[in-house]
Design a protein that fits this description.
This protein has 309 residues and is α/β, with parallel strands linked by helices. It has 13 helices and eight strands. The protein folds into two domains: 3-145 and 292-307, Rossmann fold (3-Layer(aba) Sandwich); 149-285, 3-Layer(aba) Sandwich (Rossmann fold), CATH 3.40.50.1400. Helix content is 49%, strand content 14%. Helix 1 crosses helix 2 (41-53), helix 4 packs across helix 5 (115-132) and helix 6 (149-164) crosses helix 9.
Length: 309
């Protein structure tokens, strides 16, 4: 088959979620995330509680919807692959191979790219192709797309919508916190480019939303339960400072997460809200992109750019 007649496809990859709200399923998922290490009973109980509070993670369902929207926009087959749950990355590649795809653009659903943090996806792709054998098409994994204009525009639109929904008196004074998933400091020190990408995304969103530098701060969320120092400031550190400075409200705007899942629906919607309200702050958050048309446009550009289509 000539290059001009290749059948291209795309694979959307993300973490996954537990198979159910049962403690055993949450535990099995945590074991996979933790590289085979069993969580202690307290950690397992806490994560089971969190998943039950939000009614389970909708991440896989949303990722499938994102894939369907991308398939419509590209007119390519698009599959999904989860790193730590079903359907697996191997399942996604098999699905595309069965549809006659000759070349796959694999996109990690985190716009900022770190070889250290995201290398597991690349290894999972290589392992899946080795497992599938000769029927596995070539797979090119996209790198960073943190500055893709349609992605920046979509986040800026979400922030503008949140601001527009506020009373006029609150709109001009609300503190805006742009967040990303926290990292152990020892990891962050090895990945300065990744940290720079996160900050660059936040800065670009602020510019696109016409938010002055005095109106927003970059901070971290969802610090893990491992020992050692994690990146600061966390939004929990900033809430009291905002209140002490005379602030009355806050908007949390994650710039890394593309869909509703535990880190949004619990860590932000429940945890950050409780922290803000304890400090006397009115709490708001931007809506996640989920199947936003701007995100789909960004994914189209990334898919085409990855395999030169």
């Amino acid at each position: 088959m000539s290059a001009g007649h290749e059948r291209r496809g795309a694979l959307l990859m993300t973490y996954g979620s537990p198979a159910s709200l049962e403690r055993a399923d949450v535990g099995a998922y945590l074991v996979r995330i933790r590289g085979g290490r069993d969580p202690d009973a307290e950690l397992l109980d806490e994560f089971t509680r969190r998943y039950r509070v939000i009614g389970g993670s909708p991440l896989i369902e949303i990722t499938c919807a994102q894939a369907a929207a991308l398939a419509d926009a590209l007119d390519w087959p698009v599959a999904v692959g989860m790193r730590f749950s079903a359907p697996s990355i191997a399942d996604g590649i098999r699905e595309l191979a069965a549809q006659g795809v000759d070349q796959i653009a694999a996109i990690i659903l985190s716009p900022q790219y770190s070889p250290l943090l995201m290398g597991g996806y690349t290894r999972a792709v290589a392992e899946a192709r080795a497992e599938i054998g000769n029927e596995a098409p070539p797979v090119d994994v996209a790198g960073a797309w943190h500055d893709e204009p349609a992605f920046i525009g979509a986040l800026a639109d979400r922030l503008a919508q949140s601001l527009a929904a506020l009373p006029a008196a609150e709109r001009d004074d609300v503190a805006i916190l742009m967040t990303a998933h926290s990292l152990p400091r020892r990891v962050a020190e090895q990945e300065p480019d990744y940290i720079g990408q996160l900050r660059a995304t936040a800065e670009a969103v602020a510019v696109a939303a016409n938010i002055g530098p005095d109106r927003w701060q970059f901070c971290w969320q969802s610090a893990g339960h491992e020992p050692g120092e994690w990146m600061k400031p966390d939004f929990a550190d900033l809430m009291p400072q905002i209140a002490l400075g005379g602030g009355t409200s806050v908007i949390v705007a994650p710039v890394q997460f593309l869909a509703d899942h535990l880190e949004i629906l619990y860590d932000v919607e429940v945890g950050a809200r409780e922290q803000a309200e304890r400090c006397g702050l009115a709490f708001h958050r931007i809506e996640s992109l989920n199947v936003d048309a701007g995100l789909t446009e960004a994914l189209v550009a990334v898919a085409r750019g990855t395999i030169g289509a």
